[in-house]
Amino acid sequence: MSRTAPAALTADERLTALFDPRGIAVVGASRGPGKLGAALARSLAPFAATGRRLALVNPRDDTMYRTVTDAAQDGPIDLVTICVPAAACAPVLAEAAGAGAGAAVICGGGFAEAGGPGVGYQHDLARIVAETGIRLLGPNTSGFLAPHRSLTASFVPGAGTVPAGSVAIVAASGGVNHALAFMLTEAGHGISLAVGLGNAVDVSAPDVLDHLAGNPATRAVALHVESVHDGPRLVDSVRRLARSRPVVALVVGRYDIGAFAASHTGALATSWQTTRAALAQAGAVLVSDERELVDAVGALAVTRARPTIDPGVGLVTAQAGPGLLLLDDLKGRRTRIPDLTAATQDRLAQLLPPLTFQRNPVDTGRPSEVLSEVLTAVSDDPGVDVIAAYALHEPDAVDLVAAASTGRRPEVPLVLGLGGVGAAVDHDRRALLAAGVAVASSPRGVAAAVAALTSDAHARAATASGIGTTRPAGPVVHGVTGAHDEDQAKHLLDQLGIRTPRRRACTDRAAAHAALAELGAPVAVKVLDGAILHKSEAGGVHLDIHSAADLDRALDRLDAIGAHRYLVESMAPSGIDLIAGARRDPVFGPIVLVGLGGTTAEAVADVAIRLAPIDPAHAAAMPCDLAAREALFGWRGGPALDTSELGRILAALGDLLTANPALDEIEVNPIRLTTDGLVALDAVVITRDVDDAQPDL
Hints:
There is one protein chain. This protein is α/β, with parallel strands linked by helices. It has 5 domains: 1-139, Rossmann fold, CATH 3.40.50; 141-302, Rossmann fold (3-Layer(aba) Sandwich); 309-465, 3-Layer(aba) Sandwich (Rossmann fold), CATH 3.40.50.261; 502-570, ATP-grasp fold, A domain (Dna Ligase, domain 1, 2-Layer Sandwich); 576-692, D-amino Acid Aminotransferase, Chain A, domain 1 (2-Layer Sandwich). It has 24 helices and 27 strands. The chain has a 7-stranded mixed sheet, sandwiched between helices. Helix 5 links the parallel strand 3 and strand 4 (103-106). The longest helix has 23 residues, at 443-465. It is flat, with a radius of gyration of 30 Å.
């Protein structure tokens, strides 16, 4: 592959120049041991020891090259690492591109994350990247690690000790990148590539994910997300990569950290819920913290479960107490733990003491020589797709490495929690990993790893079955523009086949009284004005109107708030109020959502989100994400949700949004779950000027 000039390189070749260079220049190299350039030069010494070029550049040191151009005259320089003050970085980057380098890394800070002049410095970098095509990692990053290449482009002490392996890290933060690399090393895993993106002026998470799709050394990817600049591109990259390698994602921003996030990378954190939903829909496994990320991606780098829509887990424990912790954690993650078949229980009864629990979980009482046979019996159960196990290190009672290695079935992954401390425990954990057994040090770690395996199995099965890829066949309305009052919004819902109450739009009191007579009591009376989005808060909604006198009193109150038109509507039966809608997320584009509704919807914020368009089958599964999901399925004699009906409604709303560029949002709140199904009690349509609208691609 030719790398003689920047114009000769494709975008992927430039990433190869970044992560697998023939030669590296360190600009700002120094003899002062505490200097950034000196630390980076020391880290890169093993790279030079492999016979590739390492050129040190410092115009104030006669023993080094004065410029990158001088260094490039003596041999190939594919990557330039820049360790100079922020104000001086842009000229160096431009020189690197002119000298033929395909990529650069800027390790120092002082750019957009610092505000002030730093914003301009970062703008200058972006301009040079656009003009020359050089790929830039950073600025404001601590670099990357490529242990298979003996390449440690990092100034962090100890980074060079991270071993080569099969886990890749793509982290928004250079610090998190290194923290995860060290945690994975402690857990017995090696790294194929670990990248800290920093301010991501050029090289972004999708770039690295796409590059990893062609990296045979990578078996699983840990993705750390703080902010998203191009949601659709990130989703596409995760989706492509997840077809061949599991992606485990940790999204920062569940709580209010926007100000600190802005000061970190110069970009605000995006919606936590929307980002997680989008990544999950793309096939990523979601985790809640960095410890779970290590346990999850470590397990998936060792083994994967067979694709299954609803995987079952068999739990085997050699100590009841840790087993209860593990069971409780798995249940909290909504993991299915089925009863073992009668044949499996009979088989276990021949192996275990009679007083032990054997239905699932399986309690062996203590680790013993029958553990291998117990694991085999549970693996053979037709309802078990993954085994979660825990045992303390008791080598006098049982050889856990031998038991796990011989007892497991290759098609049924085993995650073994091995409790204990010391060199012997560390040795056995690494031996288990080498034997293809995923390992954790605690019950919680086992639960996180098992949940990752089952989530990955479900996502792959859903992809294979076509769920989420087929467009709905329902009616799609085009040409939605302009302001909509509630009656017009509900007419739109009627066209989509979404049930609404009988109603009449009225321009005066006489028409309102005629509507009451026609519809029959009780009715609801509302102000009809597209400019009033929150009618209840404005005093614009009056319920349970039974008589003409009731109606007049309600109309008096509506007139008092300036009403000129009224909506008279049949009262809906009692039920559970939900919110359903579709809107344009500023980062990810069209999304649909469903959750608990009514006037408390924003305060409760119990919602499920998916990218649109979405097929009805996929949308029908969204209520499973809700914390209050049990209330929707006949709770205490209440109405039971028909998920297929809800799925059709959500799919229709998503299609409406994607088909109408001028439509920004349609919210149905509440949509009431009644014994007769779902009925839309209120709806809001928000549009923008047609000239400002762009169609969704």
